[in-house]
């Protein structure tokens, strides 16, 4: 799911949009409006509103336009993170899921940092993975 904000015109189900950064044309399938933890299928998102699209590959800050339109939004300013967090997976399955989430995160969220350290053999204050970001990950 990709969250979008429409600045001009509208984006509707079945319309074609172009990712300015990649030049790739994409056909819009499902369009939804989010209400807390509930999703509402809608026909289109118009200017000034925020919606979500499914099946759209993009990075944070990408601009989508109608075919033939040649403009782009300025890049996002992302301040340095204000919090650092250490996460230790409880088992191997959790470690694999966390690794997948951290790998996908840079595509979806503004620049964040993640470093990994060898798992300590005895209890210590150092964690196996140290992640710095403003976003929430679910693994």
Description:
The protein is globular, with a radius of gyration of 19 Å. Strand 5 and strand 6 form a beta hairpin. It contains one helix and twelve strands, in the order E-E-E-E-E-E-E-E-E-E-H-E-E. The longest helix has 17 residues, at 92-108. Helix content is 12%, strand content 31%. Mean pLDDT is 78; it is low at 122-139. It is mostly beta strands.
Brief account:
Helix content is 12%, strand content 31%.
Topology, pairings included?
Elements: E1 2-5, E2 10-12, E3 16-19, E4 25-27, E5 31-35, E6 38-41, E7 44-46, E8 50-53, E9 64-65, E10 85-87, H1 92-108, E11 113-116, E12 129-132
Q: How many domain modules? A: 2
The SSE order reads EEEEEEEEEEHEE
Rg from alpha-carbon coordinates: 19 Å
Classify the helix fraction into a percent range.
Answer: 10-25%
Q: Quaternary state, please? A: single chain
CATH homologous superfamily name of the largest domain?
Answer: Translation factors
The tally of helices reads 1
Distance between the termini: 16 Å
The count of β-strands is 12
Query: By helix and strand content, what is the structural category?
Result: mainly beta
Q: Strand count, sense and closure of the main sheet?
A: 4 strands, antiparallel
Tell me what the CATH architecture of the largest domain is: Beta Barrel
CATH fold-level name of the largest domain: Elongation Factor Tu (Ef-tu), domain 3
Overall morphology: globular
Q: On the 0-100 scale, what is the average pLDDT?
A: 78
Low-confidence stretches: 122-139
What fraction strand?
25-35%
């Amino acid at each position: 799911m990709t969250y979008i904000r429409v600045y001009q015109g509208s984006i509707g189900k079945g319309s074609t949009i172009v990712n300015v950064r990649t030049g790739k044309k994409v056909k819009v399938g499902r369009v939804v409006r989010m209400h807390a933890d509930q999703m509402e299928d809608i026909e289109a998102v118009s200017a000034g509103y925020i919606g979500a699209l499914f099946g759209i590959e993009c990075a944070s800050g990408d601009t989508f336009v109608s075919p033939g339109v040649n403009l782009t939004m300025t890049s996002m300013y992302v301040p340095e993170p204000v919090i650092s967090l250490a996460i230790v997976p409880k088992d191997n399955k959790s470690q694999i899921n966390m690794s997948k989430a951290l790998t996908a995160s840079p595509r979806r969220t503004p620049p964040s940092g993640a470093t990994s350290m060898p798992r300590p053999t005895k209890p210590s204050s150092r964690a196996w993975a140290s992640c710095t970001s403003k976003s929430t990950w679910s693994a």
